[in-house]
């Protein structure tokens, strides 16, 4: 496939409500979309980096810079997703930027070939059960209201963000209000240290599905030590940036569940490789989220339909974060989202909505 031009479009998407984690509060998403234009069709990729390097070392301005100066110029004359991945490999890090470009190339090639993301990746289901991530709140009553609303909407799993000082009380309150059958897990975003092991072990009383990334974002060894002190399964997110990291985590016993986020690991090809490795080792995986628009959400829902994704993901409806999405909104039906079936992502940006949230656009001609 020959590329004629690539657009780097930056958009600002206000969130319906602030989303608080152990590392900060998100009130809007500042997103770079990559649009690959070829003679036979075009494709879209969404960069999940945040405005500031708080979730990981990546951030939007750096993603734009590395795309313009290094990743896009490295693409070969004739390109497909695998060739794009190979061409970007020499450059260290910047996996979210790489993922956005690789996904846009993959979307273009699949729209041209007529194959859906789900089919290309090996989806085995037509719809996926959806969980929802609930931020840290100012009070327990406020949290219970929010969780009640999501349970009402039909989400099949609740994930609570936790941090030191907001962990046992919210988990206990949700268990007491919604009962033992509610699928419940927590995500610390690396807010604890091994010295907190005894405090974290108190979460064992609440029959959680998992505790996500309790320790440092680049750690495996201490998570292995912690997992030997907990009954609750440890799930890794930030620590897993590649299939090699996943293999090391499994070998070390650092995680018994892995949250796969295509942006964090450099794209859907790497995400599929991690899925395949985990299936081979009997390690459950689920699809994480980075508050994506409908474009990234479409790709994530397709990924979440692969056989090894046996736990509900953070693949929520568009309205969980956005009053108006840049695509037809993903809407929960009986706690599930349908996997798009059209070519490529199977969904397109709605041009006037996209234009209304665009803060900048830059074209690179080939
Ligand atoms: C702004 S926080 C993004 C990272 C966070 N993501 C979520 O909690 C899910 C967000 C979503 O529903 O997309 C995580 O560490 O798993
Ligand atoms: Mg997480």
TrEMBL record:
One biological process term in Gene Ontology: menaquinone biosynthetic process
Swiss-Prot/TrEMBL keywords: Lyase, Magnesium, Metal-binding
Gene3D superfamilies: Enolase-like C-terminal domain, Enolase-like, N-terminal domain
A GO MF label: O-succinylbenzoate synthase activity
SUPFAM superfamilies the UniProt entry points to: Enolase C-terminal domain-like, Enolase N-terminal domain-like
Pfam family name, one: MR_MLE_C
Cofactor names: a divalent metal cation
EC number: 4.2.1.113
Domain Mandelate racemase/muconate lactonizing enzyme C-terminal: 140-233
Classification via CDD domains: NAAAR
NCBIfam families reported for this sequence: menC_lowGC_arch
UniProt name for this protein: o-succinylbenzoate synthase
Gene expressing this chain: menC_3
């Amino acid at each position: 496939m020959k590329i004629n031009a690539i657009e780097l479009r930056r958009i600002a998407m206000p969130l319906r409500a602030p989303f608080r984690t152990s590392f900060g509060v998100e009130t809007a998403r500042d997103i770079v979309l990559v649009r690959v234009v070829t003679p036979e069709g075009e494709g879209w990729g969404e960069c999940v980096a945040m405005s500031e390097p708080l979730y990981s070392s990546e951030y939007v301005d750096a993603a734009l810079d590395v795309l313009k100066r290094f990743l896009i110029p490295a693409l070969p004359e004739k390109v497909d997703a695998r060739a794009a991945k190979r061409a970007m490999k020499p450059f260290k890090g910047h996996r979210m930027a790489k993922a956005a470009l690789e996904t846009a190339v993959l979307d273009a090639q699949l729209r041209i070939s007529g194959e859906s993301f789900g089919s290309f990746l090996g989806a085995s289901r037509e719809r996926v059960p959806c969980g929802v991530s609930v931020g840290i709140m100012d009070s327990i009553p406020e949290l219970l209201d929010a969780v009640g609303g999501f349970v009402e909407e039909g989400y099949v799993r609740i994930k609570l963000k936790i941090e030191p000082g907001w962990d046992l009380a919210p988990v206990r309150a949700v268990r007491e209000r919604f009962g033992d059958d509610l699928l419940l897990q927590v995500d610390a975003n690396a807010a604890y240290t091994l010295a907190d092991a005894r405090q974290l072990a108190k979460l064992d009383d609440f029959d959680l599905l998992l505790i996500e990334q309790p320790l440092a974002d680049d750690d495996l060894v201490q998570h292995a030590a912690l997992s030997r002190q907990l009954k609750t399964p440890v799930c890794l997110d930030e620590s897993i940036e590649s299939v090699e990291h996943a293999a090391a985590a499994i070998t070390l016993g650092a995680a018994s569940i892995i949250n796969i986020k295509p942006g964090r690991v450099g794209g859907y090809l790497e995400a599929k490789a991690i899925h395949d490795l985990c299936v081979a080792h009997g390690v459950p995986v689920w699809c994480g989220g980075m508050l994506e628009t409908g474009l990234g959400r479409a790709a994530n829902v397709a990924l979440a339909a692969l056989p090894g994704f046996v736990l509900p993901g953070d693949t929520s409806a568009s309205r969980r974060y956005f009053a108006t999405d840049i695509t037809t909104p993903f809407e929960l039906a009986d706690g599930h989202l349908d996997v798009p079936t059209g070519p490529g992502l199977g969904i397109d940006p709605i041009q006037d909505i996209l234009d209304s949230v665009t803060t900048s656009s830059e074209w690179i001609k080939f």
